[in-house]
Amino acid sequence: MTCKPEHRLTELAGLFLKLGTTAFGGPAAHIAMMEDEVVRRRKWLTHEEFLDLIGAVNLIPGPNSTELAIHVGHRRAGWPGLFVAGVCFILPAAVIVSVIAWTYVRYGKLPEVNALLYGVKPVIIAIVVQAVWSLSGTALKTRTLTFFALLGILAAFLGVNELLILFGTGLVTLGLHTATHGQSKKLPGIVPFFAAAQAIPAAAATATIIAPFNLSLMFYFFLKVGAVLFGSGYVLLAFLRADLVERWGWLTESQLLDAIAVGQFTPGPVFTTATFIGYLLSGPWGAVLATIGIFLPAFIFVALSSPLIPKLRASPAAGAFLDGVNVASLALMAVVTFQLGHAAVVDWLTILLAGVSFVLLWHWRVNSAWLVIAGAIIGLLRQFV
Predict the structure, then answer these.
(1) CA distance 173 to 317
(2) What angle do CA 75, 78, 80 make, to 5 degrees?
């Protein structure tokens, strides 16, 4: 039975409000929780469709998991769904971060969250491992793609730039397809769009105006960051430090590190670091404008690229390119999971939490959000027992 459009919007709002409240652990964890919900449970997308969206968001600037949420919303309920899914994923985190920012301004320190994260982190590792394993069955369609995935893992461990891994693997698989099957007339205008998206950072990174603090300039700064930033929270840290600390002196080093920490330990998008900074600089209005500024480009990029993804898959040559990007994306997720797991699974209790969570996800398909909540409770109980 087909759902009415308004019912689909309600479904999207409920799902992404829940994920925005419970999705700890950064983009890889967010993507894993979305896969659990929209592929395994609700079957809104197939594994291949979901992988294509992951590959596409990795090729455009902005917060990957937020852009994936926006893509899912568009697939499920058209343009209204695009807006509803994105806003509902961002909103809970922005509210939580604003409350933390208010506390920070009032009392001068961050709340203690180590106990909570102790129990959440190993659960997140299990969720990501399950998602990577599940998606790999669809992505690794040939021995050649499996080989490129292993090369991607090796390259990531050696410190090769993630964009080079993603786009390089896509171009190599495209080249192999072209050599075997000849040129495709459907390729021009599709893959080049994603190549052009990666030229934006070089063109826009220098477009910052030097001036004293004002709300308009702050909004423009975060709009620029949202439009040009690829990579992890550490790349975000470099962007923010260069302008907000060194060039303008709007923040101290300590405030910036606290802002990054808030983005890392709160649920939802890491880019809500901007919400915290906006509140420090200009209260609630600063938080609102900074949040809109840094996330607005994600909605624009998804709106522009979303119609191209079916064309990518429909064209054999462009599909080969996307297959390469998909296996590279999985390789990067696997490496991030290993690196995070090394820090999260540290003793017998965290090993037990990770193992039990994986079994519950894989065999009984327990909802990942409940596992995150259970992990948080166990972490807090350990603190007091």
Answers:
(1) 9
(2) 125
Query: Does a structural domain hold residue 129?
Result: yes
In this predicted model, what pLDDT tens digit does every residue of 238-295 receive, in sequence order?
678 878 988 889 998 888 878 877 887 788 888 999 999 999 999 999 999 999 999 9
CA distance 77 to 338: 35
Domain presence at residue 20: yes
Distance in angstroms (rounded) separating the CA atoms of residues 264 and 281 = 20
Q: What share of the chain is helix, strand, coil (3-state, %, to 5)?
A: 80, 0, 20
Number of neighbouring beta carbons within 10 Å of residue 1: 3
> pTM of the predicted model, to two decimals?
0.83
Identify the domain containing residue 175 by its residue range: 5-198+302-384
Neighbours of 47 (CB within 10 A): 16
Task: Please report whether residue 356 resides in a domain.
Answer: yes
* Residues 82 and 302: beta-carbon distance below 8 Å: yes
Q: Residue 354 domain-assigned?
A: yes
Q: Is the dihedral of CA 289, 224, 83, 325 positive or negative?
A: negative
Distance (Å, rounded) from C-alpha 22 to C-alpha 236? 22
